[in-house]
Q: What sequence folds into this?
DNA sequence: AAAAACAAGTTGCATTTGCAACACTTTTGT
DNA sequence: ACAAAAGTGTTGCAAATGCAACTTGTTTTT
Protein backbone atom coordinates (compact mmCIF):
# COMPACT_ATOMS: atom_id res chain seq x y z
CA UNK A 1 0.00 0.00 0.00
CA UNK A 2 2.29 2.72 1.21
CA UNK A 3 6.01 3.03 0.94
CA UNK A 4 7.26 5.40 3.58
CA UNK A 5 9.81 5.39 6.39
CA UNK A 6 6.89 5.33 8.81
CA UNK A 7 6.27 1.69 7.89
CA UNK A 8 9.86 0.54 7.48
CA UNK A 9 10.40 -3.04 8.63
CA UNK A 10 6.70 -3.88 8.68
CA UNK A 11 4.90 -6.47 6.56
CA UNK A 12 2.06 -5.45 4.26
CA UNK A 13 -0.48 -7.01 6.58
CA UNK A 14 0.97 -5.22 9.61
CA UNK A 15 0.85 -1.95 7.70
CA UNK A 16 -2.78 -2.62 6.91
CA UNK A 17 -3.57 -3.26 10.57
CA UNK A 18 -1.83 -0.08 11.67
CA UNK A 19 -3.49 1.92 8.93
CA UNK A 20 -6.88 0.72 10.15
CA UNK A 21 -5.99 1.26 13.79
CA UNK A 22 -4.91 4.87 13.22
CA UNK A 23 -7.45 5.61 10.46
CA UNK A 24 -4.70 6.67 8.11
CA UNK A 25 -5.90 8.31 4.90
CA UNK A 26 -3.89 9.01 1.78
CA UNK A 27 -4.47 12.25 -0.10
CA UNK A 28 -2.99 13.92 -3.18
CA UNK A 29 -2.47 17.61 -3.81
CA UNK A 30 -1.37 19.76 -6.73
CA UNK A 31 1.10 22.62 -6.50
CA UNK A 32 -0.23 25.54 -4.45
CA UNK A 33 -3.17 23.57 -3.10
CA UNK A 34 -3.82 23.96 0.63
CA UNK A 35 -3.12 20.77 2.56
CA UNK A 36 -3.87 21.89 6.08
CA UNK A 37 -4.58 25.08 7.99
CA UNK A 38 -3.13 25.65 11.45
CA UNK A 39 -6.22 27.30 12.82
CA UNK A 40 -5.56 26.79 16.50
CA UNK A 41 -7.25 23.45 17.13
CA UNK A 42 -6.15 21.11 14.38
CA UNK A 43 -5.03 17.78 15.79
CA UNK A 44 -4.32 15.97 12.55
CA UNK A 45 -0.83 14.76 11.80
CA UNK A 46 0.44 14.45 8.25
CA UNK A 47 3.47 12.90 6.67
CA UNK A 48 4.76 13.73 3.22
CA UNK A 49 5.12 10.59 1.12
CA UNK A 50 6.21 12.25 -2.10
CA UNK A 51 6.69 15.81 -3.26
CA UNK A 52 7.12 18.72 -0.89
CA UNK A 53 5.11 21.31 1.01
CA UNK A 54 5.70 24.58 2.83
CA UNK A 55 4.25 25.96 6.01
CA UNK A 56 3.71 29.60 5.13
CA UNK A 57 2.42 32.64 6.90
CA UNK A 58 1.18 35.57 4.83
CA UNK A 59 1.30 39.00 6.43
CA UNK A 60 -1.25 41.70 5.81
CA UNK A 61 1.47 43.69 4.05
CA UNK A 62 1.83 41.00 1.41
CA UNK A 63 5.15 39.54 2.53
CA UNK A 64 5.26 35.77 2.91
CA UNK A 65 7.39 33.86 5.34
CA UNK A 66 8.20 30.20 4.85
CA UNK A 67 8.08 28.95 8.42
CA UNK A 68 8.95 25.35 7.62
CA UNK A 69 9.61 23.21 4.62
CA UNK A 70 8.39 19.63 4.48
CA UNK A 71 10.08 17.03 2.32
CA UNK A 72 9.51 13.30 1.94
CA UNK A 73 9.03 11.58 5.27
CA UNK A 74 8.57 14.81 7.20
CA UNK A 75 5.88 14.77 9.85
CA UNK A 76 3.81 17.91 10.12
CA UNK A 77 0.78 19.23 11.95
CA UNK A 78 -0.24 22.01 14.24
CA UNK A 79 0.76 19.93 17.28
CA UNK A 80 4.35 20.31 16.17
CA UNK A 81 4.13 24.02 15.51
CA UNK A 82 1.52 25.96 17.43
CA UNK A 83 2.29 29.36 15.96
CA UNK A 84 0.72 32.27 17.75
CA UNK A 85 0.84 35.07 15.19
CA UNK A 86 -2.32 36.89 14.16
CA UNK A 87 -2.48 35.04 10.84
CA UNK A 88 -3.22 31.32 10.54
CA UNK A 89 -0.26 29.56 8.96
CA UNK A 90 -1.13 27.22 6.12
CA UNK A 91 0.52 24.12 4.67
CA UNK A 92 0.69 24.45 0.91
CA UNK A 93 1.95 21.95 -1.65
CA UNK A 94 5.09 23.40 -3.24
CA UNK A 95 5.08 20.56 -5.77
CA UNK A 96 2.53 17.85 -6.54
CA UNK A 97 2.53 15.71 -3.45
CA UNK A 98 1.01 12.80 -1.62
CA UNK A 99 0.48 12.81 2.12
CA UNK A 100 -0.80 10.42 4.75
CA UNK A 101 -2.97 11.91 7.47
CA UNK A 102 -4.29 10.63 10.75
CA UNK A 103 -5.56 11.86 14.09
CA UNK A 104 -2.86 12.34 16.70
CA UNK A 105 -4.90 10.78 19.49
CA UNK A 106 -4.75 7.49 17.63
CA UNK A 107 -0.98 7.65 17.72
CA UNK A 108 -0.83 8.52 21.39
CA UNK A 109 -3.18 5.83 22.60
CA UNK A 110 -2.90 2.99 20.12
CA UNK A 111 -5.36 0.14 20.16
CA UNK A 112 -5.34 -2.20 23.11
CA UNK A 113 -4.21 -5.35 21.32
CA UNK A 114 -0.58 -4.38 21.64
CA UNK A 115 1.21 -6.38 18.99
CA UNK A 116 4.85 -6.90 18.17
CA UNK A 117 4.79 -4.49 15.29
CA UNK A 118 3.74 -1.61 17.51
CA UNK A 119 7.28 -1.34 18.85
CA UNK A 120 8.64 -1.19 15.34
CA UNK A 121 6.13 1.41 14.29
CA UNK A 122 6.76 3.60 17.33
CA UNK A 123 10.50 3.36 16.79
CA UNK A 124 9.97 4.45 13.19
CA UNK A 125 8.00 7.45 14.38
CA UNK A 126 10.82 8.32 16.77
CA UNK A 127 13.27 8.20 13.89
CA UNK A 128 11.09 10.54 11.86
CA UNK A 129 10.72 12.94 14.76
CA UNK A 130 14.48 12.99 15.25
CA UNK A 131 14.87 13.71 11.57
CA UNK A 132 12.42 16.57 11.95
CA UNK A 133 14.32 18.08 14.86
CA UNK A 134 17.51 17.83 12.82
CA UNK A 135 15.95 19.81 9.98
CA UNK A 136 14.63 22.39 12.41
CA UNK A 137 18.06 22.66 13.97
CA UNK A 138 19.53 23.34 10.55
CA UNK A 139 16.97 26.05 9.98
CA UNK A 140 17.78 27.61 13.34
CA UNK A 141 21.47 27.37 12.56
CA UNK A 142 20.98 29.31 9.34
CA UNK A 143 18.64 31.90 10.82
CA UNK A 144 20.97 32.47 13.74
CA UNK A 145 23.70 33.82 11.46
CA UNK A 146 24.07 37.55 11.98
CA UNK A 147 24.62 38.81 8.43
CA UNK A 148 23.12 38.17 5.02
CA UNK A 149 26.40 36.78 3.81
CA UNK A 150 26.74 34.41 6.76
CA UNK A 151 23.17 33.18 6.30
CA UNK A 152 23.75 32.54 2.63
CA UNK A 153 27.09 30.80 3.15
CA UNK A 154 25.71 28.55 5.89
CA UNK A 155 22.73 27.62 3.74
CA UNK A 156 24.90 26.98 0.70
CA UNK A 157 27.26 24.82 2.72
CA UNK A 158 24.37 22.69 3.94
CA UNK A 159 23.09 22.34 0.38
CA UNK A 160 26.53 21.41 -0.89
CA UNK A 161 26.83 18.79 1.82
CA UNK A 162 23.46 17.31 0.89
CA UNK A 163 24.38 17.30 -2.79
CA UNK A 164 27.79 15.83 -2.07
CA UNK A 165 29.30 18.42 -4.41
CA UNK A 166 30.43 22.02 -4.40
CA UNK A 167 27.92 22.86 -7.08
CA UNK A 168 24.20 22.36 -6.79
CA UNK A 169 20.82 23.69 -7.87
CA UNK A 170 18.79 25.63 -5.34
CA UNK A 171 15.68 23.74 -4.24
CA UNK A 172 13.56 26.83 -4.69
CA UNK A 173 13.37 30.14 -6.52
CA UNK A 174 15.38 33.11 -5.32
CA UNK A 175 12.12 34.68 -4.18
CA UNK A 176 11.40 31.64 -2.00
CA UNK A 177 15.00 31.48 -0.82
CA UNK A 178 14.75 35.02 0.49
CA UNK A 179 11.50 34.08 2.25
CA UNK A 180 13.17 31.04 3.76
CA UNK A 181 16.12 33.06 5.02
CA UNK A 182 13.77 35.82 6.17
CA UNK A 183 15.58 38.54 4.27
CA UNK A 184 14.81 40.97 1.46
CA UNK A 185 15.25 39.41 -1.96
CA UNK A 186 16.94 42.43 -3.51
CA UNK A 187 19.37 42.78 -0.63
CA UNK A 188 20.05 39.07 -0.93
CA UNK A 189 20.85 39.24 -4.62
CA UNK A 190 23.04 42.29 -4.03
CA UNK A 191 24.96 40.31 -1.44
CA UNK A 192 25.27 37.33 -3.80
CA UNK A 193 26.70 39.66 -6.39
CA UNK A 194 29.32 40.83 -3.88
CA UNK A 195 30.09 37.23 -3.01
CA UNK A 196 30.67 36.52 -6.69
CA UNK A 197 32.98 39.54 -6.90
CA UNK A 198 34.83 38.37 -3.79
CA UNK A 199 35.36 34.98 -5.37
CA UNK A 200 33.38 33.07 -2.76
CA UNK A 201 30.84 31.60 -5.12
CA UNK A 202 29.85 31.36 -8.74
CA UNK A 203 26.17 31.59 -9.45
CA UNK A 204 23.71 31.97 -12.28
CA UNK A 205 19.98 31.67 -11.76
CA UNK A 206 19.46 28.79 -9.36
CA UNK A 207 22.83 27.16 -9.98
CA UNK A 208 25.39 27.79 -7.22
CA UNK A 209 29.01 26.73 -6.92
CA UNK A 210 31.17 27.15 -3.83
CA UNK A 211 34.73 28.16 -4.68
CA UNK B 1 14.63 6.71 41.27
CA UNK B 2 13.90 9.28 38.64
CA UNK B 3 10.95 11.56 38.23
CA UNK B 4 10.73 12.69 34.64
CA UNK B 5 8.18 12.68 31.83
CA UNK B 6 10.28 10.01 30.15
CA UNK B 7 9.05 7.49 32.72
CA UNK B 8 5.48 8.71 33.09
CA UNK B 9 3.03 5.87 33.68
CA UNK B 10 5.71 3.33 34.52
CA UNK B 11 6.18 1.53 37.83
CA UNK B 12 9.40 1.87 39.79
CA UNK B 13 10.44 -1.64 38.85
CA UNK B 14 9.74 -1.03 35.15
CA UNK B 15 11.78 2.15 35.34
CA UNK B 16 14.60 0.17 36.86
CA UNK B 17 14.44 -2.39 34.05
CA UNK B 18 14.47 0.26 31.38
CA UNK B 19 17.29 2.15 33.09
CA UNK B 20 19.35 -1.03 33.05
CA UNK B 21 18.38 -1.89 29.49
CA UNK B 22 19.41 1.54 28.17
CA UNK B 23 22.34 2.04 30.59
CA UNK B 24 20.87 5.31 31.77
CA UNK B 25 23.19 7.36 33.99
CA UNK B 26 22.26 10.35 36.10
CA UNK B 27 24.69 13.26 36.34
CA UNK B 28 24.73 16.64 38.06
CA UNK B 29 26.28 19.87 36.83
CA UNK B 30 26.86 23.32 38.24
CA UNK B 31 26.22 26.55 36.35
CA UNK B 32 28.57 27.01 33.41
CA UNK B 33 29.87 23.44 33.54
CA UNK B 34 30.09 21.66 30.20
CA UNK B 35 27.59 18.84 29.88
CA UNK B 36 28.30 17.62 26.38
CA UNK B 37 30.30 18.65 23.33
CA UNK B 38 28.88 18.21 19.84
CA UNK B 39 32.17 17.16 18.31
CA UNK B 40 30.84 15.41 15.23
CA UNK B 41 30.46 11.87 16.50
CA UNK B 42 28.70 12.05 19.82
CA UNK B 43 25.83 9.57 19.97
CA UNK B 44 24.73 10.13 23.53
CA UNK B 45 21.27 11.42 24.26
CA UNK B 46 20.53 13.50 27.33
CA UNK B 47 17.39 14.68 29.00
CA UNK B 48 17.20 17.55 31.44
CA UNK B 49 15.55 16.44 34.68
CA UNK B 50 15.93 19.70 36.58
CA UNK B 51 17.53 23.07 35.88
CA UNK B 52 18.35 24.27 32.40
CA UNK B 53 21.13 24.20 29.84
CA UNK B 54 22.06 26.00 26.64
CA UNK B 55 23.57 24.77 23.42
CA UNK B 56 26.03 27.52 22.59
CA UNK B 57 28.45 28.21 19.79
CA UNK B 58 31.30 30.62 20.42
CA UNK B 59 32.76 32.39 17.42
CA UNK B 60 36.39 33.30 17.08
CA UNK B 61 35.36 36.97 17.30
CA UNK B 62 34.04 36.45 20.81
CA UNK B 63 30.32 36.59 20.05
CA UNK B 64 28.24 33.78 21.46
CA UNK B 65 25.09 32.38 19.92
CA UNK B 66 22.58 30.40 21.93
CA UNK B 67 21.53 27.78 19.41
CA UNK B 68 19.05 26.03 21.63
CA UNK B 69 17.80 26.23 25.17
CA UNK B 70 17.01 23.08 27.12
CA UNK B 71 14.53 23.09 29.97
CA UNK B 72 13.14 20.28 32.11
CA UNK B 73 12.19 17.25 30.05
CA UNK B 74 13.98 18.45 26.94
CA UNK B 75 15.87 15.80 25.01
CA UNK B 76 19.21 16.86 23.62
CA UNK B 77 22.19 15.38 21.83
CA UNK B 78 24.18 15.80 18.67
CA UNK B 79 21.84 13.41 16.85
CA UNK B 80 19.15 16.06 17.12
CA UNK B 81 21.34 18.92 16.03
CA UNK B 82 24.28 18.06 13.80
CA UNK B 83 25.59 21.59 13.43
CA UNK B 84 28.18 22.04 10.76
CA UNK B 85 29.89 25.30 11.68
CA UNK B 86 33.64 25.42 12.17
CA UNK B 87 33.28 25.57 15.93
CA UNK B 88 32.03 22.66 18.04
CA UNK B 89 28.82 23.67 19.81
CA UNK B 90 28.76 22.84 23.51
CA UNK B 91 25.96 22.14 25.97
CA UNK B 92 26.49 24.22 29.10
CA UNK B 93 24.49 24.27 32.29
CA UNK B 94 22.80 27.67 32.58
CA UNK B 95 21.70 26.79 36.10
CA UNK B 96 22.56 23.89 38.40
CA UNK B 97 21.02 20.91 36.68
CA UNK B 98 20.55 17.18 36.64
CA UNK B 99 20.48 15.18 33.44
CA UNK B 100 19.97 11.59 32.43
CA UNK B 101 22.20 10.28 29.68
CA UNK B 102 22.20 7.15 27.58
CA UNK B 103 23.45 5.83 24.26
CA UNK B 104 21.07 6.35 21.36
CA UNK B 105 21.60 2.88 19.94
CA UNK B 106 20.01 1.48 23.07
CA UNK B 107 16.90 3.49 22.37
CA UNK B 108 16.72 2.49 18.74
CA UNK B 109 17.17 -1.23 19.27
CA UNK B 110 15.83 -1.97 22.71
CA UNK B 111 16.48 -5.31 24.37
CA UNK B 112 14.88 -8.38 22.88
CA UNK B 113 12.55 -9.21 25.74
CA UNK B 114 9.92 -6.78 24.51
CA UNK B 115 7.75 -6.08 27.46
CA UNK B 116 4.49 -4.22 27.90
CA UNK B 117 6.15 -1.15 29.28
CA UNK B 118 8.22 -0.64 26.14
CA UNK B 119 5.19 0.76 24.35
CA UNK B 120 4.57 3.19 27.17
CA UNK B 121 8.18 4.25 27.24
CA UNK B 122 8.36 4.76 23.47
CA UNK B 123 5.14 6.77 23.54
CA UNK B 124 6.64 8.95 26.26
CA UNK B 125 9.70 9.55 24.12
CA UNK B 126 7.43 10.52 21.23
CA UNK B 127 5.68 13.04 23.45
CA UNK B 128 9.01 14.54 24.46
CA UNK B 129 10.16 14.75 20.86
CA UNK B 130 6.95 16.49 19.88
CA UNK B 131 7.48 18.92 22.73
CA UNK B 132 10.98 19.52 21.40
CA UNK B 133 9.76 20.27 17.90
CA UNK B 134 7.23 22.68 19.36
CA UNK B 135 9.95 24.62 21.16
CA UNK B 136 12.07 24.66 18.02
CA UNK B 137 9.11 25.93 16.03
CA UNK B 138 8.70 28.76 18.51
CA UNK B 139 12.34 29.64 18.13
CA UNK B 140 12.00 29.65 14.35
CA UNK B 141 8.87 31.76 14.62
CA UNK B 142 10.76 34.38 16.63
CA UNK B 143 13.87 34.33 14.47
CA UNK B 144 11.80 34.63 11.32
CA UNK B 145 10.56 38.09 12.33
CA UNK B 146 12.14 40.71 10.12
CA UNK B 147 12.84 43.53 12.59
CA UNK B 148 14.23 43.84 16.11
CA UNK B 149 10.93 45.12 17.34
CA UNK B 150 8.97 42.27 15.79
CA UNK B 151 11.37 39.71 17.23
CA UNK B 152 11.07 41.22 20.68
CA UNK B 153 7.28 41.48 20.54
CA UNK B 154 6.87 37.91 19.36
CA UNK B 155 9.18 36.65 22.07
CA UNK B 156 7.44 38.71 24.74
CA UNK B 157 4.04 37.47 23.60
CA UNK B 158 5.19 33.87 23.91
CA UNK B 159 6.57 34.55 27.38
CA UNK B 160 3.36 36.28 28.45
CA UNK B 161 1.37 33.32 27.20
CA UNK B 162 3.56 30.91 29.18
CA UNK B 163 3.30 33.08 32.27
CA UNK B 164 -0.44 33.48 31.84
CA UNK B 165 -0.03 37.19 32.49
CA UNK B 166 0.90 40.36 30.70
CA UNK B 167 3.82 40.89 33.02
CA UNK B 168 6.63 38.42 33.51
CA UNK B 169 10.31 38.08 34.34
CA UNK B 170 12.69 37.26 31.51
CA UNK B 171 14.13 33.75 31.80
CA UNK B 172 17.62 35.04 31.11
CA UNK B 173 19.78 38.14 31.25
CA UNK B 174 19.51 40.80 28.57
CA UNK B 175 22.90 39.68 27.27
CA UNK B 176 21.56 36.15 26.86
CA UNK B 177 18.30 37.41 25.40
CA UNK B 178 20.20 39.24 22.68
CA UNK B 179 22.18 36.06 21.99
CA UNK B 180 18.98 34.06 21.83
CA UNK B 181 17.40 36.51 19.38
CA UNK B 182 20.66 36.71 17.44
CA UNK B 183 20.85 40.49 17.65
CA UNK B 184 23.16 43.10 19.13
CA UNK B 185 22.44 43.75 22.79
CA UNK B 186 22.83 47.53 22.55
CA UNK B 187 20.58 47.75 19.53
CA UNK B 188 18.09 45.58 21.36
CA UNK B 189 18.03 47.81 24.43
CA UNK B 190 17.73 50.89 22.23
CA UNK B 191 14.71 49.30 20.58
CA UNK B 192 13.21 48.38 23.96
CA UNK B 193 13.59 52.00 24.98
CA UNK B 194 11.69 53.07 21.86
CA UNK B 195 9.02 50.49 22.63
CA UNK B 196 8.66 51.97 26.10
CA UNK B 197 8.36 55.44 24.59
CA UNK B 198 5.77 54.16 22.11
CA UNK B 199 3.74 52.74 24.98
CA UNK B 200 4.03 49.13 23.82
CA UNK B 201 5.71 47.80 26.92
CA UNK B 202 6.90 48.76 30.35
CA UNK B 203 10.22 47.30 31.38
CA UNK B 204 12.84 47.56 34.06
CA UNK B 205 15.75 45.16 34.29
CA UNK B 206 14.33 41.73 33.52
CA UNK B 207 10.74 42.60 34.33
CA UNK B 208 8.55 43.15 31.28
CA UNK B 209 4.93 44.16 30.97
CA UNK B 210 2.90 44.20 27.76
CA UNK B 211 0.56 47.19 27.53
C1' DA C 1 0.97 34.91 -31.32
C1' DA C 2 0.09 38.21 -28.05
C1' DA C 3 -0.66 39.17 -23.31
C1' DA C 4 0.03 38.26 -18.69
C1' DA C 5 2.43 36.39 -14.95
C1' DC C 6 6.58 35.11 -12.89
C1' DA C 7 11.57 35.11 -12.11
C1' DA C 8 16.19 37.17 -12.15
C1' DG C 9 19.01 41.05 -11.92
C1' DT C 10 20.15 46.01 -10.69
C1' DT C 11 20.54 50.51 -8.09
C1' DG C 12 19.58 54.90 -5.21
C1' DC C 13 18.08 56.18 -0.97
C1' DA C 14 16.26 55.99 3.76
C1' DT C 15 16.17 53.31 7.72
C1' DT C 16 17.68 49.92 10.75
C1' DT C 17 21.11 47.73 12.96
C1' DG C 18 25.79 46.65 14.67
C1' DC C 19 29.90 48.32 16.78
C1' DA C 20 32.56 50.83 20.05
C1' DA C 21 32.95 53.34 23.94
C1' DC C 22 31.15 54.93 27.72
C1' DA C 23 28.72 55.37 33.00
C1' DC C 24 26.48 53.20 36.56
C1' DT C 25 24.65 49.29 39.53
C1' DT C 26 24.46 44.61 41.25
C1' DT C 27 26.38 40.17 42.08
C1' DT C 28 30.21 37.07 42.91
C1' DG C 29 34.51 35.52 44.73
C1' DT C 30 38.37 35.79 48.01
C1' DA D 1 35.02 44.08 53.15
C1' DC D 2 36.95 44.74 49.06
C1' DA D 3 37.98 43.87 44.39
C1' DA D 4 36.59 41.87 40.31
C1' DA D 5 33.22 40.43 37.30
C1' DA D 6 28.85 40.60 35.31
C1' DG D 7 24.67 43.06 34.20
C1' DT D 8 21.98 47.24 32.76
C1' DG D 9 21.53 51.51 30.32
C1' DT D 10 23.02 55.04 26.81
C1' DT D 11 24.74 57.27 22.46
C1' DG D 12 27.42 58.66 18.04
C1' DC D 13 28.73 56.89 13.98
C1' DA D 14 29.47 53.65 10.22
C1' DA D 15 27.87 49.79 7.83
C1' DA D 16 24.35 46.62 6.54
C1' DT D 17 19.87 46.02 5.12
C1' DG D 18 15.10 46.97 3.49
C1' DC D 19 12.26 49.33 0.27
C1' DA D 20 10.88 51.11 -4.10
C1' DA D 21 11.39 51.44 -8.69
C1' DC D 22 13.13 49.84 -12.53
C1' DT D 23 14.95 46.41 -16.84
C1' DT D 24 15.30 42.14 -18.99
C1' DG D 25 14.28 37.48 -19.95
C1' DT D 26 11.38 33.28 -19.41
C1' DT D 27 7.45 30.75 -18.67
C1' DT D 28 2.27 30.24 -18.65
C1' DT D 29 -2.31 31.53 -20.14
C1' DT D 30 -5.70 33.03 -23.39
A:
Amino acid sequence: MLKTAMFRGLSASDVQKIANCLSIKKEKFNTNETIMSYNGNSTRIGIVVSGSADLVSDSYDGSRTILERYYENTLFGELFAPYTGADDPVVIASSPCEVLMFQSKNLMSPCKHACDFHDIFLTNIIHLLMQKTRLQSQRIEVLSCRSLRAKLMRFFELQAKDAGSNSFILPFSLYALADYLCIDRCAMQREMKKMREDGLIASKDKKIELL
The mean pLDDT of chain A is 85. Residues 146-147, 173-175, 185-186, 189-190, 193, 205-206 of chain A lie near DNA strand C (CB under 10 Å from a C1'). The first strand of chain A starts at residue 25 and ends at 29.
